[in-house]
Specification:
The complex is a heterodimer. Chain A is of the alpha+beta class. Chain A has 2 domains: 226 residues, P-loop containing nucleotide triphosphate hydrolases (Rossmann fold), CATH 3.40.50.300; 119 residues, OB fold (Dihydrolipoamide Acetyltransferase, E2P) (Beta Barrel), CATH 2.40.50. Chain A is built from 8 helices and 20 strands. Chain A has a 6-stranded mixed β-sheet, with helices on both faces. In chain A, strand 17 and strand 18 form a beta hairpin. In chain A, helix 2 crosses helix 3 and helix 2 packs parallel to helix 4. The longest helix of chain A is centred in the middle third of the chain and has 18 residues. The radius of gyration of chain A is 24 Å and the shape is elongated. Chain A starts with 5 loop residues before the first strand and ends with a strand. Chain B is an all-alpha fold. Chain B has a single domain, classed as Orthogonal Bundle (MetI-like fold), CATH 1.10.3720. In chain B, helix 8 runs antiparallel to helix 11. Classes of the chains: A alpha+beta, B mainly alpha. Chains A and B meet through strand 6, helix 2 and helix 4 of A and helix 9, helix 10 and helix 15 of B.
Amino acid sequence: MGTASVEVRDLVKYHGAILAVDRCSFSVQPGEFFSLIGPSGSGKTTTLRLLAGFEQPDRGEILIEGRSMQSIAPNHRPVNLVFQNYALFPHLTVFKNVAFGLEMRHIAHSEVNSRVGAALDMVRLHDKPDRFPSQLSGGEQQRVALARALVNRPAVVLLDEPLGALDQQLRQDMRLELKAIQEQVGLTFICVTHHQEEALTMSDRVAVMNRGRILQIGSPRDMYESPRSVFVANFVGTSNQLTGRVDEVNAVTCRIHVPGMPSIVARYQISLTVGTPVTLTIRPERLDLSRDQHESGLDNRVPARIDKALYNGSDMHYKLRLSDQVVWTARVVNGGDQKGFTAGESVYVGWNAGDGVALTE
Amino acid sequence: MIDPSSTVSRHQSTRQRHPYWPLFPAVLWMLAFFLLPLLLVFAISFASRGLYGGVRWVFSLTNYLMILDPLYLRIYGRSFLLASGTTGICLLIGYPLAYFIARAPARWQGVWLLFVIIPFWTNFLVRTYAWMFILRTEGLLNTVLLDVGMIRAPIEILYTDWAVLIGLVYGYLPFMVLPLYAAIERLNRSVVEAAWDLYANGWSLFWRVIFPLTKSGVIAGCLLVFIPTIGAYITPDLLGGAKTMMVGNLIQHEYLVIRDWPFGSAISFVLMAAVVLGVLMYFKCGGVFEDVKERR
């Protein structure tokens, strides 16, 4: 493996007394689409601004293509930021907006023209070079902002909530387009978003942040299938939870004792010892509902009552009451012939050991 | 801001029909106290001076020809130079000051703005007298400079063009700072950051982004300083003494001392026409309308 595009080591940043970024470390490989996700105030935007150079870390180190960014101003960093509200230059045309970075670096006129032309082609704005930002739609402005960064071919493209200001349908389309453009140009992308679904679709790897700390880094699949904390399990997708104590630890699974329920077999991520309190998390679509307690093939089966049945077209959403405090959600694909369950019915909720994950925090 | 939705709504609101009747008091006031007197002055400028002052209603163009007398041309020239100098110095001092205020924490902005406006609470005449005390030969400035040892003999500032310039800059600086503050405060911070991120150094950051985006404030400030200073009367009268006359003093002199109302009216009118023409040319050449259009 060559030099990482970005290498962040033990980054710490205070905003006054508030610890905005707390000992964050990660590295991003060339050509990778890396996303920082987390709720607002989790420190992801601050991390991005530290990478761009608008803020200086209190401790830690940022290397971009192996070069330390210590006290290097934003205009001398090989990174370009796509701003949340685009921050286009309102007094310049689309062409001049995109050409800005090249002109600042005194690139020859002919090259500026061809590179800006190519960038506008890529974002499908080749027919609007003379428009002003105010004459463009939100989606078009977003693409200008993207072209303005890409045209410089920076070592890293930083994106701050790139799709945040777009409406729902456009978000869906732009998500795929953004990913396609990233693959086409082959540049390293670091994207900040609070929209976990977006991050899962676009990214090669994702880091989940909360309260300034990085909780977990991995592929979208890792994040969803193997969360290492309850926070990650809840933030990436939705999950059902159940708390109990470890009864028995095996090679890959453990047995969990939950008062008033049959014992449950689940996968674990972090080493466990017998007696440890744990939280079981399981995805709504991994649950199977049946009226028969002894239906075969599933490792776990617990009784529940259906609180609510929501017809959702392609699938059914059920609110399941396992006990007074525990309410789960199950999502069952609508198979057409399959007869649904109705509210008030008693059922058995089943799932495989591999679908439940036992977590300690 | 470049929020697209706000741009759209602004366009719509200008097209919306508003009732005109609330304008009635303003229109009445302007007609009675601005337009009528102006027409009167315009009429007088074509009349002749009576034997003992006063106006004789005999049509003549002599007043307008008299304006071209080299004696008066020097006064116009001095007025123009002093007004331009005042505007330039106000801009040089005012821009950094306005930038500082606009970028200060919100709770401090009000305090700094208050300091800019506080002089208005005292009468302009009184403040100009204060400057006489500061600038005269035994005044504060000379005393301090002598004590510090920067000069050996008192410098003569009062009753020179320099005193007028100092007084005008002092008096009109707030008119520069306030519109500049408004423009800079409106400036989207992330647009400036975007330019910085796109390799702009301090120089290009200012001249390619910050200045163009605050140009409307610069123009408003310059007009608000230039127009009143070219017709300034109190400052040159008190600080410039008898030697330094500006157009304002000339007009006052013609009306009240020589009692040649028609000539005074003619000068007033030419001054006004020159200012209006100058401003229009400034707009045309400076591409101001272009700028405004782009920002909408």
